[in-house]
């Protein structure tokens, strides 16, 4: 920053996907990142996502926490959680989402 002022603080949501990883690195450049958060809502890829997010945070010296959201599965039937195939066809019922 060069102005003598401290960088603003930030908390970053980090799933370790492409978008959140980019945002994480951008935040590190522009802010003092005090915490990276990863949500575990029961998605099938959670173990891999969490492991990757932990590693990204560690490599960059940022504390990391996982926020468990076990109740999330109670109001969604997305294939990310249920493991069922992605609905296809002309008409997809909203209840199936």
Task: List the main descriptive attributes of the protein structure presented here.
97 residues, alpha/beta, 3 helices, 20% strand, elongated
Could you please describe the fold and organization of this structure?
- The protein has three helices and three strands, in the order E-H-E-H-E-H.
- It is an alpha/beta fold and 97 residues long.
- It has a single domain (9-96), classed as HUPs (Rossmann fold, 3-Layer(aba) Sandwich).
- The longest helix has 14 residues, at 46-59.
- The chain is elongated and about 55 Å long.
Task: Give the C-level CATH assignment.
Answer: Alpha Beta
Counting structural domains, the number is 1
Count, helices: 3
Strand content is 15-25%
Estimated helix fraction: 25-40%
Q: How many strand elements?
A: 3
Q: Main beta sheet: strand number and arrangement? A: 3 strands, parallel
Radius of gyration: 17 Å
Structural class: alpha/beta
CATH superfamily: HUPs
- Overall geometry: elongated
Average of per-residue pLDDT values: 86
Task: Spell the H/E element sequence.
Answer: EHEHEH
CATH architecture: 3-Layer(aba) Sandwich
Instruction: Give the CATH topology.
Output: Rossmann fold
Termini separation (Å)?
Answer: 45 Å
Which residues sit in consecutive blocks of at least 5 with pLDDT less than 50?
Answer: none
Can you lay out the helices and strands and say which pair or pack?
Blueprint: E1 9-13, H1 18-30, E2 32-40, H2 46-59, E3 64-68, H3 79-82
Parallel strand pairs: 1-2, 2-3
């Amino acid at each position: 920053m060069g102005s003598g002022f401290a960088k603003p603080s930030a908390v970053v949501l980090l799933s370790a996907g492409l978008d959140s990883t980019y945002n994480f690195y951008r935040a590190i450049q522009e802010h003092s990142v005090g915490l990276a958060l990863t949500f575990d809502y029961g998605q099938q890829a959670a173990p891999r996502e969490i492991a990757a997010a932990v590693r990204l945070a560690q490599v960059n010296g940022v504390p990391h926490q996982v926020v468990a959201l076990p109740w999330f599965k109670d109001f969604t039937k997305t294939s990310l959680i249920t493991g069922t195939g992605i609905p296809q066809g002309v008409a997809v019922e909203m209840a199936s989402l």
